[in-house]
């Protein structure tokens, strides 16, 4: 689909064009085609935020964005998020920002991602916002290439006003003894945790994680902070109760969280189905599962159940010992599992490869 030249619903000045209602806008939109790749609903929504008497500047903006590698999808998304992008001067406002970011090290594809996700960034001042933000991040992360990688991972880092959330949230970490190296990892791996969490909430989480006995110098500390800020209090309480319903004590829940913070990020449904399988189907003690919370991250259908079937076949034929640690078989990577428990026994159990492959590739798997 080609881009259509303006006028279009999102650009037409209603007063000048005589458009009296949203219905008229929709009809005109259908007559002229899809404006900038927007749906009629998106065009109407955008038209509430921008009014142009002439399509000239909008055409220049579109040409500028196309010439910098943005495709129709990128442009449509950017305009939907920030319709006033079409009112900006390509030469005076857009080009200086694009040139600056290119010199800094951002590739065309990365700039396309930035503009389509957070188009307001290229409307911000280089001196007052972009440069100070990049300098702040570089002071923590270390190199420009790392800053580029972090922003490529989350454009929020460049969109956010770092003084409002990044500074106080990082201060909360540093005050509790988290080393700069760990702060840097948090910025690179989980930037949204710093950018989207209010300072009050973030500080509460840092205090709570520290209070659980996790040492601030450990990588697991930032993993735990990220996990906790990602879960609302009501959801946290719900997951707490889900674990308790399967026999875990509060101490066991906290202990499991210290070992593997991700265990509190899964949905209650996933938690319950995993606990149900390990405790009721395999017959494991709740306390045993609490000591190996990483087991809850695996897909029952694609990993746990197929591997357990293999182990049960091998056990029934006396090919593995009864006291073998099944947790080891469930946690090792796929290649090692195949080598140790499937291909190793091709002569004694030639059907294992076919059965195992069938289960891991099928969506319909019966309980073992």
From TrEMBL:
<keyword id="KW-0809">Transit peptide</keyword>
<protein>
    <submittedName>
        <fullName>Uncharacterized protein</fullName>
    </submittedName>
</protein>
<dbReference type="GO" id="GO:0006353">
    <property type="term" value="P:DNA-templated transcription termination"/>
</dbReference>
<dbReference type="InterPro" id="IPR038538">
    <property type="entry name" value="MTERF_sf"/>
</dbReference>
<keyword id="KW-0804">Transcription</keyword>
<keyword id="KW-0805">Transcription regulation</keyword>
<dbReference type="GO" id="GO:0003676">
    <property type="term" value="F:nucleic acid binding"/>
</dbReference>
<dbReference type="InterPro" id="IPR003690">
    <property type="entry name" value="MTERF"/>
</dbReference>
<comment type="similarity">
    <text>Belongs to the mTERF family.</text>
</comment>
<dbReference type="Pfam" id="PF02536">
    <property type="entry name" value="mTERF"/>
</dbReference>
<keyword id="KW-0806">Transcription termination</keyword>
């Amino acid at each position: 689909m080609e881009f259509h030249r303006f006028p279009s619903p999102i650009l037409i000045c209603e007063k000048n064009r005589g458009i009296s209602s949203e219905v008229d806008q929709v009809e005109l939109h259908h007559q002229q085609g899809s404006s900038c790749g927007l749906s009629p609903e998106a065009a109407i929504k955008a038209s509430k935020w921008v009014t142009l008497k002439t399509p000239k500047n909008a055409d220049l903006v579109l040409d500028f964005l196309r010439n910098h590698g943005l495709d129709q999808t990128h442009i449509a998304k950017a305009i939907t998020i920030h319709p006033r992008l079409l009112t900006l001067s390509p030469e005076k406002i857009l080009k200086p920002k694009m040139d600056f970011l290119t010199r800094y090290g951002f590739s065309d594809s990365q700039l396309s991602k930035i503009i389509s996700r957070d188009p307001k960034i290229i409307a911000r001042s280089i001196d007052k916002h972009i440069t100070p933000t990049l300098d702040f991040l570089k002071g923590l992360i270390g190199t420009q290439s790392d800053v580029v990688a972090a922003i490529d991972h989350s454009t929020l880092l460049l969109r956010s006003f770092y003084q409002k959330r990044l500074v106080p949230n990082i201060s909360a970490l540093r005050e509790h003894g988290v080393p700069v190296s760990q702060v840097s990892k948090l910025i690179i791996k989980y930037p949204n945790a710093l950018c989207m969490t209010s300072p009050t909430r973030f500080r509460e989480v840092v205090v709570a994680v520290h209070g659980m006995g996790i040492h601030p110098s450990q990588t697991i500390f930032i993993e735990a902070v990220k996990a906790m800020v990602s879960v609302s209090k009501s959801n946290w309480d719900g997951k707490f109760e889900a674990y308790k319903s399967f026999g875990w004590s509060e101490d066991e829940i906290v202990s499991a969280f210290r070992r593997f913070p991700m265990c509190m990020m899964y949905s209650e449904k996933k938690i319950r189905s995993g606990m149900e399988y390990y405790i009721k189907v395999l017959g494991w003690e709740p306390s045993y599962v609490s000591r190996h919370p990483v087991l809850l991250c695996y897909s029952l259908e694609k990993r746990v159940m197929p591997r357990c079937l293999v182990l049960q076949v091998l056990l029934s034929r006396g090919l593995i010992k009864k006291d073998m640690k099944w947790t080891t078989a469930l946690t090792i990577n796929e290649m090692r599992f195949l080598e140790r428990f499937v291909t190793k026994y091709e002569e004694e159990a030639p059907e294992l490869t076919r059965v195992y492959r069938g289960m891991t590739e099928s969506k319909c798997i019966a309980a073992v």
